[in-house]
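$ run holo --ligand "zinc ion" --emit tokens
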Amino acid sequence: MSTENTFPAATILGYPRIGPGRELKKAVEAYWAGRLDEAGLQHAADQLQDRTVARLVELGLDRGDSSIPADFALYDQVLDATAALGALPARFADLAAEDGSVDTAGYFTLARGDGERAPLELTKWFDTNYHYLVPEIGPGTPFVAVAHGLTATVRRQRERGTVLRPVLVGPVTYLLLAKPEDGAPAGFDPLERIDDAVAAYVGILASLAEAGAEWVQLDEPGLVGDRGGELAAPGGLVERVYRQLAGTAGRPALLVTTGYGTAGDPARPGQALAVLATAGVEAVHADLVRGSRPSAEALQALGGTRLVAGVVDGRNVWRNDLRFSLGVLEDLQQETGTAVTTATSTSLLHVPHDVQAETGLPEHLPAWLAFADQKVREAVVLARGLAGGRPAVAAELQDAEEALGHRARFDGVVVDSVRTRTRGLTEEAFTRGPAERRAEAQQERLGLPLLPTTTIGSFPQTREVRGARAAVRSGSISQSEYEQFLRQEIANVVRLQEGLGLDVLVHGEPERNDMVQYFAENLDGFAATEQGWVQSYGSRCTRPSILWGDVSRPQAFTVPWISFAQSLTERPLKGMLTGPVTILAWSFVRDDQPLGETANQVALALRDEIADLEAAGIAIVQVDEPALRELLPLRSADHQAYLDWSVRAFRLATAGAEDGTQIHTHLCYSEFGEVISAIDGLDADVTSIEAARSRLEVVADLAGFGYSRGIGPGVYDIHSPRVPSEQEISGLIDTALAALPAQQLWINPDCGLKTRGYDETVLSLRNLVAATRAARGSVRLSTAEQVLARS
Ligand code: MET
Ligand SMILES: [Zn+2]
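-- output --
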């Protein structure tokens, strides 16, 4: 490669892949359904890619200088790396062609499984709401260079006059994200395969160069985790790997990105970048939004390696403080003594496409926001200001400043009555009476049997339910017709549960489109978008709400539905709320105050709702926190501070409840073994927790901890239409009973039934109730035997 460092002045690390009209989602799902053949899918993907390139050029990136990243995965970028490396686990070896590559059908088999085989596991990408497919690496996993798709993309765009910068997950991060393949020797660490992986990357770099790539981007965000410090220290594994890659003849120039925090040892910010520079890469990226600014010493050590400064937040939707960012860039440029590139802190994958597409936002909001397209422009403007001086971008700086000033002073951003309340909070507001006293009061009030059965809240959201929601939105049915429909739906769900013999009933949540959006729509301080889709995994997208101002509750909103449901039955009906941490985790949250303050505001709104539910005679309230584990910081050193504010917010929401009100919580989507003491800290009377797929692993952790309140480990995996047999559920109940006292246990599914159909739901719940009844019998028997043995 040429020795002259020609990296562009502005770039982004990646762009939303799903398409402004969710074109990719539609094409991929049509392909799965057999409505589109492989050529049709390829054509749709190519068209979207052309549109993206054209759009990025329009926004100010240059077609010819590698500033446009090629990150067009059909499903997931980590799966793309697995395919490019031919790194198929043995259980999928048959999907590989002779050269080790997989075709489109095989690619989707890895993502979605087939008749006999479960897909690759899906897991959170760092501390985001994006999920990737976990590579399974063993001692024998093949590593070959078969990046056919990426090479074809580069070549195709090159023919159209565009020099793309192909993007790949880097080798260290790839192996850090992997898990040992089933059957790998105990203690096997996928990183043991680094040399084989690097050899394949060398081959990939060569074929990308041949296809016309001048720069290649290798993403190494894995270096911001707990292992990053050691791996990226001078003389460590990262240095060795990148020396090898940089030493390859005829390769493209290399940009190594970090992102999601400070790479390497957080006490030595920038050291990891200096190490990469020493190894010989041409450009290194740092996240300057979540991460710390590199030290002056580290910056000097960069030498001729270009610094790519991530000053535009890739993870949030707020407009950039351009004057501040420009100041950071100017400082960096001075300290490195050479040109610096302006970039995003991460890929823009985590934000929606375009603010301009929104027509229904409150009038004040659009000017405060920057989605992906606006962020590209911000990076371009900053680069122009850095090169040409502030006068060159005076108007843009002025605009941004005015928008930020408007935001800071806007009515609703700070609401005195909300502030007075949070300021006045004392320790008492976070504390309930002693758990034993509560348990007694609740048992007296509820009189529940041993091993009470319940569900997690939602019942199947059928075509009719979704249809009614769409109809009221479009005005083809009236609000009162819609409400009548919902009451009917609730009555059906209540009757069904009574018939099944469940002990604690729910109303089924038919009025909720989404467990967070529904709360955002009913609380002040939030706004909802129309087109703000963000990829969550594969073709699945979510539309996070925007939390822009102080949060409060204009009026009770769940109470009418819950008390209607309770009026239909003698059995206790459980009110259903989404917890403060989950509401924050699944929204775009204001960035002008600590998350803990915002969480307390949400908590107080929920606390008021619980008080109103109690006043309406509801004896059980569940506050769902499926995202509790999700926001856990990447470095263990930061865990406690997070758990402190998140657990406190939950307690603030729930601690106003009377002793006799039973507070439940529900946790799912993660493994919770690591945060048992936080779960204990929530102080809920009953916790239901996803557990079926791990065959109740968590009960052993709970028992080991000495957890003493109610616990409902999920005994029915609701993630597939499969009906668990009574025998299978009995087996799981026995596992729970072996670890924990029967008095503590609840019997319930893993999560809500929203995505399931009625047929399988009814069969599964019938088995769940039958297995519970059998277990009650044998517990009583064994207690009687113990009594006999003692006498
Ligand atoms: C992702 S957790 C879902 C909890 C909610 N109450 C439901 O049942 O759907
Ligand atoms: Zn759940």
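-- notes --
The first strand starts at residue 68 and ends at 70.
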